[in-house]
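Suppose you are handed a protein chain with no further information: no name, no annotation, nothing but its sequence. What can you learn? This example shows the usual starting point.
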Amino acid sequence: QVQLVESGGGLVQAGESLRLSCAASGRTFSNYLIRWFRQAPGKEREFVAAINWSGSTYYANSVKGRFTISRDNAKNTVYLQMNSLKPEDTAVYYCNKENSWGQGTQVTVSS
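A reasonable first move is to predict its three-dimensional structure. Written in structure tokens, the prediction is:
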């Protein structure tokens, strides 16, 4: 069973940037699709971005052009670079591999 640990969240002002990390332990995930989701208070968890084994990337329309997902298979880590952050990006961000989820990392963007 893979364990996922997110980090890198914090409090920033609108327009600033953050980079989230998702580190995996246990089985490596280089051959798997890794996804980022987020959940804001009172809202359902929503898809943010994904990267597959070959490096192809997918984004929600709301973050396209601002967020970039990448992976370093040697470090068993997936990153989410978030630029031009907006208050509506405030949420707990989770990484996911198949049925495994991390504990989440809080991102708060003030206006």
